[in-house]
Amino acid sequence: MKQEIQLYNTISRKKELFKPLNAPNVGMYVCGPTVYSDVHLGNCRTFLSFDLIFRYLKYSGYKVRYVRNITDAGHLEGDRDEGDDKFAKRAKLEQLEPMEIVQKYTLGFHDVMRMFNALPPSIEPTATGHIIEQIEMIKTIINNGYAYEVNGTIYFDVEKYSKQYNYTILTNRNLEDMLANTRELGGQDDKRGRLDFALWIKAKPETLMQWVSPWGMGFPGWHIECSAMSAKYLGQEFDIHGGGMDLAATHHTNEIAQSEACSHQQPAKYWMHTNMLTVNGTRMSKSLGNGFLPGELFTGNHPLLRKGYSPMTVKFFMLQAHYRSTLDFSNDALEASEKGFRRLMNAVSLLPKLVASEQGNIEVDPIRTRCINAMNDDFNSPVVIAELFEATRIINTVYDGTAKISEAELEKLKTLMNDFIFTVFGLKDEDTSNTELNEVLDMVISLRKDAKENKDYATSDQIRIGLQNIGIQLKDGKEGTTWSKN
User: Does 241 appear as a known binding residue?
Assistant: First the structure.
């Protein structure tokens, strides 16, 4: 069943045929959240995009080891190894231990992922749990001549590395331009080169999180953690490395450099990056006041939102855009997605009620083929959704009696909807858990049926209009009456 999947490789800047190093085993590493605050919606899009990729690779017959790390140490405020540690700063602000901050926001992240019905990764390592591996990797880089120590801090020598390797292979930026656009080193800066970055940072006496190392008490730099953990769990070379496009220029660029300086080979065969979120055409940003936390989006508790939107509505909205394209949030777009998602779920609820005919004029295989082809084309979920709406149209016409479907094709249709809506996309019908509402509506529909049979059309219409006024649409068909939310 293994598919010939074409995926876009950031390094080659083109679609490539996916050829795992050790098929059917696939190693995938995705940079996880930095857990010093609530996960924002941009992070969620990245993790849901790779959840889709994880699900489809598994669906296609691959055995996937999906590693997604938790950053809980060594993340400074500045990109140039300067400023306060974000965990320590938050811990002081909330008057907690740093690991209490880590635990609090890690649990919050997991809660959000569960609400989005994302599969957990195969392994979820933490930076603080792999200090030894990071130290050993740094020692190897030093021994290979690509790092140096200054007063207990270890820096990576970018210019020396660049003489043998392509430091900007991921972004295709010009190294000379990068050097020219980097500010002059101040008198207090211990780095030899402007682009050098810290692998290990000497701790100040008041530093809350610090560890013993060959160079004294300190803590790891942000970039080394992913290089060390990906190598530990996936090997020095693995299949896919992913994350948000904002990580490419610095974090992922430095990851490649560290790994090559250590093992003399690139860590990942394919690099994949998700695009950014915008709000009403403007980049999502906390400073602009247009950034959403998932909880704010679910409750509607944000000045830019007209109302709250369910987790599955938001997930469906994200799936309607390709993972490499910009996704723009607006109330109109979310409301349209809400209606589209309900339409899809209403069609799924009709499937058990469809009656097959001895003969039919509907063929499901072409739809499935187009869905498979779309997913094989760099995981093109928007095209799959369009095909699922075509399947929805077929379901409605069969239910209305305007089209006929054979038993064999009906089974294919059920399998198609289950495979792509639930298995590949990871959506779920949020109304199915509301058993009380289902029972009440079944009773109301039964009362309306009795009224119609008794030719009490005034009561029948009153029930239909009353439900419509509260957002419940009734639909009469040959097999009975169904309901859906508007």
Answer: no
